[in-house]
Amino acid sequence: MRCKSQKQTRALILSLLLFFFLSLAVKPSMGQETLSWKWSPQIAFRLSSYNRTVKFNDYAYFNSFSWDYPYSSEVTFHNLLVGSGTPIEHVGLASVDSDVTVLSADSKQVKVNLADTSKTLYVYDVDIKNVQVGGSWLTKNDFFTNWNEWESSSGDAVFQNSSLTAIRANSSFAVTLGFEEPPNIFPITTGIEKTLFLRADSREVNGIVGYKLSETQSSGSVMDSVDVEGAYVTYYGVRVWVVHHNGATEELTSGVPAAVVTRNADGEGLQNATWLCPGYNSIVDAVMVKVYQRFGTGDWNLRASFITENDFLVKLPEATWTFSYYTIRQYADGATFSTLVWGGSYMSSVTMRYDVPAAWEVQFYNLFNGDIFGFLFTPYTWFLGFLGYSLVFLFPLGIVLYNRFEDATATIIALLLIGGGAGGLLSMLVPQLGLQLCWALFVLGIAALLYRLVTS
């Protein structure tokens, strides 16, 4: 009896453990009555035919999946959901030249990243209405229906027949598949568009040193050149970070260079490429752009870093950025020379979009970062600009001193003694542009004082 009781106890424990582990692996999908697999992002599906993988950026839910055995060249997911929404009934994915990462998937759209640019994504058994590669949109009117024409075309291109959609992504590794006909597939333009030049002079921002990224161009230029033995195609691309008040950085690109341009023959000039900024809704203190270069299929190498001034204080919407690189490729004496030039008359730049945060957002951003003066004075400087600093410092102090001396001459002298000079109150607390305005007011006051002395 005792043995039987122990066996029953063990059986009960094993049953409970089995139920527990099954409950971890299986979870109902949203909007579905049947159970779906909960697939960890650490597990990938290998396409044996091409030695490529298909994986997920987050937990994926689906009822079943299938390979086209024995080749295993594509994998099809049924009732797939990554993120929120209603699952897509089925979608088959494959790539002969790149690993594929599914970022999100539902019945409206599937977002994927390829491991690199200039790669091809194959999608099976689903009617795709539109495709976005980076910041460029293509609709059925743009799709090729002839395979040979699609293969011979250049740039981003889509081929589609009744069972296959082949997408060549040259300008970006980010691909979005749309399954509905939206009223307007082109995203609404938001924010302020600004072109920032890659300058030849440098700055230090929050402990990070880099060349300036600014609205005005520098007078000088910089030429960065590298070479390698043999004939190679040359590439340039960028990675983008936000820089926080404490010097910490957060990358917006996916860990590999985006907005890639290439030269496979000798030549020089500006080359443009786009990158879809995923957006950053918190206030950004500065933006850093790093330019990378490589030869052929070799490793990417950092060539230069560029950074905006601190207190940039913007928010970044989801928008397309355009990067312009002045590049030179030359093959001579058995070696390939790759050169990037910026500054001066070489208009290497980035055209970006940003949103201006509300005054209260800036105020609490300053408070969060320990800038008490910024927190207190933001309501004044936000609407009055640097004039606000003059009013905050000069006007109240001037009234107090005038009431004390009852003489404008003594008041101006006292203001100069208190606030002027290196290490003075104004120098410590007022930004440079505001300080220039304060000194301008002092000069006007002194001019008025001298006028009174002369005329009296």
Compute the gyration radius: what is it?
Answer: 30 Å
Shape: elongated
Terminal residue distance: 122 Å
Number of domains: 3
Output the keywords.
single chain, 456 residues, alpha+beta, 12-stranded mixed β-sheet, 9-stranded antiparallel β-sheet, 8 helices, 30 strands, 25% helix
Characterize this entry briefly.
It contains eight helices and 30 strands. It has 456 residues and is of the alpha+beta class.
How would you describe the overall organization of this protein?
The protein has 456 residues and is of the alpha+beta class. The protein folds into three domains: 25-178, no CATH class; 192-357, no CATH class; 361-455, no CATH class. Helices cover 25% and strands 42% of the residues. The chain contains eight helices and 30 strands. Strands 17, 18, 19, 20, 21, 22, 23, 25, 26, 28, 29 and 30 form a twelve-stranded mixed β-sheet that branches. Strands 1, 2, 5, 6, 7, 8, 11, 14 and 15 form a nine-stranded antiparallel β-sheet that branches. It has a seven-stranded mixed β-sheet with strand order 3-4-9-10-16-12-13, with no helix packed on it. The longest helix is centred in the N-terminal third of the chain and has 24 residues, at 2-25. The chain is elongated. The N and C termini lie far apart (122 Å). The model is unreliable at 18-35 and 183-189 (pLDDT under 50).
